[in-house]
Amino acid sequence: MSILSDIASTLLTPLHRSLAIKRLRKLERTFKFVEHRWVVPFAFRSHGFFKGMRPMQDLREIEMLYRLILEKKPRHVVEIGTARGGTLYMWGQACADDAILVSVDLPGGNFGGGYRNCRTPLYQLFARDKQTLHLLRADSHASSTCEHVSTLFDDGKVDFLYIDGDHTYEGVKKDFIQYGKLVRPGGIIAMHDIRKTPVSPETQVYRLWDQIKQHCQTTELVNDKDQTSVMGIGVVHIPETGMPDLDFE
Ligand SMILES: C[S@@+](CC[C@H](N)C(=O)[O-])C[C@H]1O[C@@H](n2cnc3c(N)ncnc32)[C@H](O)[C@@H]1O
Q1: Residues with Cβ < 8 Å from 133, sequence gap 6 or more?
Q2: Which of 28, 109, 181, 242 is the most buried (most CB within 10 A)?
Q3: Each residue's pLDDT tens digit in the chain (249 positions)?
Q4: Domains plus CATH for the chain?
Q5: Residue 23 — φ and ψ, nearest 5°?
Q6: Is the shortest distance between the CB of 87 and ligand 1 below 6 Å?
């Protein structure tokens, strides 16, 4: 049954894709102002392989980060963990009109499973005005991936890095160390799932976060109001003097 429905979905993919694009554009007409556009990927529903693009985020926490990014309007943006494209859509809206955005995801990767290649043309439409979007289907931990990412920016430097890929301690540490080096003084690194949660013991971002916040200026975007968050977003503000040397375990 599921093989048959997979075949049917594949045959219907071009139709589903054009329906999804229409749906996206309609939502954008509903949420006219950029201040509200973060809602679009939560509201989006369509068909087949394009059923949803819901961000894997707490609503209040991602709204706080969206507003911060909207205020800073970064030009060079890197995201690790594309998945359904929810947060990627938001960065396209919040960043500068001529931003270069790079989103990295490992097909079949842990903590979300990546995305089907047929969704790539939909994600490409997230780039607006003079923006450029690069979708890399690769392992973020490979040094070749990080080198590739740095070549996509004229000065090799990043204004905003969002880390939401491998959530194991070693995995997130690798991403933080490798890609953190690309972030310019005055830039921002945000990382998802900084809270310890019994729901997902393999999520160990909190261990890295506890170390980072001892050495860096940080802000925690945590939905304490609803007391529902098991996620939490940590923001690291890179000082004008550059990233301090961090001594990890
Ligand atoms: C939690 S999801 C990202 C959610 C997305 N940021 C959102 O909220 O819209 C994590 C993604 O990271 C990807 N991932 C896991 N390990 C990775 C790795 N080593 N390199 C690149 N991507 C990885 C997974 O495939 C998954 O799609």
Answers
A1: 92, 101, 102, 103, 123, 124, 126, 127
A2: 109
A3: 578 877 877 889 999 999 999 999 999 999 999 999 999 999 999 999 999 999 999 999 999 999 999 999 999 999 999 999 999 999 999 999 999 999 999 999 999 999 999 999 999 999 999 999 999 999 999 999 999 999 999 999 999 999 999 999 999 999 999 999 999 999 999 999 999 988 889 999 999 999 999 999 999 999 976 666 679 999 999 999 988 878 776
A4: 55-237 (3.40.50.150)
A5: -60, -45
A6: yes
